[in-house]
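Input chain follows. Return structure tokens only.
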Amino acid sequence: MINSNKVKTKVVNLRNGKYELRVETQPDADGITHQRVRKVKAASKSSAERKLREFIAEVLQEEPVTNKVRDNKNMSVSTLLDLFIEDMELSGRSAKTMENYKNRRKRIDEAFRNRTISELTVQRVDAFSKALTEATNRHDEYACYKKIKAETEVRKLSKNTAYKVQALLIQVIKWGDKKGYLTDNITNRLTKLPKSPYSQIEIPDIDSIIKFMDFMDHDNSVVLPTRVFFNLVVWCGLRTEEVLALTWSNVNFNTRRIRVTKAVVRIGGSFRVLKEPKSKSSIRDVIVPEKVATLLQTWKDLCMASFPEWIAARPNREKTKEYEIVNPTDGTLPHPGTYNQWLRRYLQRHHFEHVTPHGLRHFFTTYLLIKGADIKTVSKLMGHSKTSTTLNIYAALTKEGYDKAESILNDTNNE
């Protein structure tokens, strides 16, 4: 604490009943001088001096500012992000999580370029959040890309990406406050994040997805592995990363079951790694409808017939022989983002409702619930650890759900 014997004070009359109170301390053991100024209204100088004594008491309660904290005031926001990412890496965050942090920080770096952490105010954080929110029109129209002068493509933000960028900034601020880098505690004054997009998912229309799948299955321009991929997502409820990690040993054609044990993630471009699924409950057996099983068998026969030729051309193709989803021309493993891009373009070309591969998984859940499947079974097939997760995420009713509810109510009232 500051020694009260080392306080210098002064009261300056600014006229019209306004006074300026000044409190200054002599340099302490660390060589730090505290200077505080406050403007007050008072009826007289004696009244202003009483307020001065209260002001002195406040100054004496302050912790001395160290040289380290003073230097931190000049730290850039970018440097704070560097320290946060370094700390997260040392604490054992996964490679995929670290890549996500580094990708999302680009938006923050761009918005707070040349800003120090002392300039990281609530107003600037709110303005940044508002700018991100205004940029989330990716799902409001089919045009997901826009052309710029250099003829490159700049992707607009999805609602989920904007949410995660905002969440990262607030996480960094709270971390910086906890570590003592931020002298002005703004964490308690930050506005709340908007609800996660996953808390208000728009379930795709049942009829629309069924029409899309029927159209795709009869479209000769769609290669067989693409049809297999989307049938596994739509009719088996698998995640994209789970489909890409499937091997033929996971499929039991006799019982028509698929054992899910692994998932694929992308680290740094096209580099793929296998990992455990999202949770322990994600390790599960899923049902394969007869139609999908027939499609899988056809694709397996074609792969087994083609691989000798592919391996002869490139011996390292022996490593990809066990995987279900491979490129039909050379047996290579597809990029994890391939099918997301393909689906977006295909839907635009044929004027279907916009949906992502993960949205097709939502269809699987909604379809089963509407048709009368019990929530526990659906939750188990989806790989959710709790049935409440299934209910919370997929609480929205589709038009068919509303129609069914209306029919039940009308029948009841007519009895």
